[in-house]
Design a protein that fits this description.
It comes from Ascidiaceihabitans donghaensis. Pfam families: Peptidase_S78 (PF04586). GO terms for molecular function: peptidase activity. It is a single chain. With 188 residues, the chain is α+β, with helices and mostly antiparallel strands. It has one domain: Serine Protease, Human Cytomegalovirus Protease, Chain A (Alpha-Beta Barrel). Helices cover 24% and strands 39% of the residues. Strands 1, 2, 3, 4, 5, 6, 7, 8 and 9 form a 9-stranded mixed sheet that branches. The longest helix is centred in the last third of the chain and has 24 residues.
Length: 188
């Protein structure tokens, strides 16, 4: 949890459902329902519905950020909606900005392949497996990130298997995120 804003982050690697076209167009799933991430959270179907309705009613949009940094927007999400599978996004990296060009280059090189949502938990319960079931979330942003937490959401990596180094880095990132979350819960 971000101590300054109270926002939580849910990481996801781009999966079979994410595509990057022409180096700047991105579409696919930023979050998948029913899948447990490395932090022990599961997003339930419909968790984003109220937030997306509120965002549309206020004429706002979900922000596309670089590594959750609000000072570094890198593109525009033109479409964000839920379907039976998860939270689907479609947008454009802005290659007219330096950070947008850098993001496109890093994606093309395979250095960046993750998405992460920035959100506030509105409603959550524990399931019988001890996992936190997120049933209502206030969505703020979807970021391109280095270390995602949900291995199934990933850019331009169709049928690519995780290698040992990649898995070790993800485990380390998950451990840091878990520690950060626990510290934030203890402080709150």
């Amino acid at each position: 949890m971000d101590m300054d804003t109270g926002l939580e982050h849910k990481f996801a690697r781009f999966g079979d459902g994410i595509e990057v076209q022409d180096g700047t167009l991105i579409e696919g799933y930023a979050s998948l329902f029913g899948e447990c991430d490395q932090g022990g959270d599961v997003v339930g179907k419909g968790a984003y519905a109220r937030s997306l309705t509120d965002i549309a009613a206020k004429g706002r949009n979900v922000k596309m950020l670089w590594q959750h940094d609000p000072a570094q927007p890198i593109g525009v999400w033109d479409e964000v909606h839920e379907d039976a599978k998860g939270l689907w996004v479609k947008g454009r990296l802005l290659d007219t900005t330096q950070k947008g060009r850098e993001a496109a280059s890093l994606i093309a090189a395979g250095a960046i392949d993750g998405l992460s949502i920035g959100y506030r938990t509105v409603k959550a319960t524990k399931n019988d497996k001890g996992q936190r079931l997120l049933t209502e979330l206030e969505l703020w942003e979807v970021s391109l990130v280095t270390f995602p937490m949900l291995p199934s959401a990933r850019v331009a990596a169709k049928s690519e298997a995780l290698d040992a180094d990649d898995a070790a880095m993800r485990a380390m990132a998950a451990a840091f995120e878990g520690l950060r979350t626990e510290l934030a819960r203890d402080a709150g």
